[in-house]
UniProtKB/TrEMBL annotation:
Residues 6-239 form the ABC transporter domain. GO terms for molecular function: ABC-type polyamine transporter activity; ATP binding; ATP hydrolysis activity. This is Spermidine/putrescine import ATP-binding protein PotA. Its EC number is 7.6.2.11. It is an enzyme of class 7 (translocase). One of its GO terms (biological process) is putrescine transport. Belongs to the ABC transporter superfamily. Spermidine/putrescine importer (TC 3.A.1.11.1) family. Pfam families: ABC_tran, TOBE_2. It catalyses: ATP + H2O + polyamine-[polyamine-binding protein]Side 1 = ADP + phosphate + polyamineSide 2 + [polyamine-binding protein]Side 1. SMART domains: AAA. GO terms for cellular component: ATP-binding cassette (ABC) transporter complex. The lineage of its organism: Bacteria, Pseudomonadati, Pseudomonadota, Alphaproteobacteria, Rhodobacterales. Part of the ABC transporter complex PotABCD involved in spermidine/putrescine import. Responsible for energy coupling to the transport system. It comes from the Bacteria.
Length: 355
């Protein structure tokens, strides 16, 4: 069951300097009726513009946005069954929590009884039962964020847009709210479109991640697909820590290809789709490597303590870029200056489609 369908959406801006920016440069995206989709990308890639186009605060130059089959273009923002949660949740400080949550219904003239029931139900959904009588300044940061959420769901939107709603919270609270948001979304059974810069947040919460770059979609996939099978170098480098190896295929042996970097580091890669002489870029994550008796020979230039793990920076003896490796900390963990060998399972190496 499709919910949100965005087709060939374009929107440009003329900058004060007289330039032209394609904030949305042909976006096609379908979000399922009960799906949690995250827009992820660097500053300026068009995430906010896309949210504003969906909520109706920005018009498209061309293309269409449909919700459950209805074209939204003709509907002003307040008539769209869509609501937005912002980072600055801007609660009215002189009103009680309950009145904050019910305010949109009050403005629409919903009668008091129905309003109270809706407010109570919304507060229950975000775990704030019994807090309706408080003022916002009598709540913690996390509770205020929940009030903002309750306010955004009280009118039962079919789609909730979330524009970096957690970025003002400290790390622990943020992680707790990530789980709560995901739970709330499945419980409500509506679509969430979530915007973040934070790749870890995107990996944790999303059913699918949309990686954007300069007004275009670079890749759409589940968190695992995006992390394990990035299509491009941009996606590989944007999501998680990455080691990239530029190599040329020397020979194919059964399911494996033997490739060599310009410096002569030998790499084993999955042979699928590869041929002899081909230039490839392979992605290996820091946790794909293990310290072994043989493999890529190098020297530890830096060992960074991370708690139970160590991040090692290993300079291959053959030359080329340092390799980042995650190793368990412990008595045998190598220190700076140690000579090591790195091995990895060839099937863990992912060859990028597009160079
Ligand atoms: N009103 C405007 N006038 C001119 N340019 C604009 C306007 N709004 C956005 N832009 C430009 O459009 C591009 C996309 O902006 P947008 O705010 O959608 O990016 P974003 O991905 O949300 O960035 P951030 O993560 O920093 O919030 C940027 O280059 C921005 O400078």
């Amino acid at each position: 069951m499709a919910s949100l369908e965005i087709r060939a959406a374009r929107r440009h801006f003329v900058t004060p300097e007289g330039g032209r920016v394609a904030a949305l440069d042909g976006i096609d995206l379908t979000v399922g009726a009960n799906e949690f989709v995250t827009l992820l990308g660097p500053s300026g890639c068009g995430k906010t513009t896309l949210l504003r186009a969906i909520s109706g605060f920005e018009a498209l130059d061309s293309g269409s946005i449909r919700l459950d089959g209805t074209d939204l273009a003709a509907l002003p923002p307040f008539k769209r069954p869509v609501n937005t949660v912002f980072q600055s949740y801007a609660l009215f400080s002189h009103m009680s929590v309950a009145r904050n949550v019910g305010y949109a219904l009050e403005v629409r003239g919903v009668d008091r009884k129905a309003r109270e029931a809706a407010v109570e139900s919304a507060l229950a959904k975000v775990g704030l039962t019994g807090m309706g009588g408080r003022r916002p300044n009598q709540l913690s940061g996390g509770q205020r964020q929940r009030v903002a959420l309750a306010r955004s769901i009280v009118a039962e939107p079919r789609l909730l847009l979330l524009d970096e709603p957690l970025s003002a919270l400290d790390r622990n609270l943020r992680q707790q709210m990530q789980i709560e948001l995901k739970t709330l979304q499945s419980r409500l059974g509506i679509a969430f479109v979530f915007v973040t810069h934070d790749q870890e947040e995107a990996l944790t919460m999303s059913d699918r991640i949309v990686v954007m770059r300069a007004g275009r979609i670079e890749q759409i996939g589940t968190p695992r697909e995006i992390y394990r099978h990035p299509r491009t170098r941009f996606v590989a480098e944007f999501i998680g820590e990455t080691n990239l190896f530029h190599a040329t295929v020397d020979r194919i042996e059964g399911a494996q290809a033997l490739a060599r970097t310009a410096q002569g580091v030998e790499m084993l890669l999955p042979a699928t789709g590869l041929r002899r002489g081909q230039a490839v870029t392979a992605v290996l994550r820091p946790a794909d490597f293990s310290l072994a008796d043989q493999g890529i020979a190098g020297r530890v230039t830096r060992a960074v303590y991370l708690g139970s793990d160590l991040q090692l920076y290993v300079q291959p003896d053959a030359g080329g870029e340092e390799i980042r490796v995650t190793a368990r900390d412990g008595a045998n963990a190598p220190a700076t200056g140690a000579a090591v060998h790195l091995s990895y399972a060839p099937e863990a190496a992912h060859v990028l489609e597009a160079a």
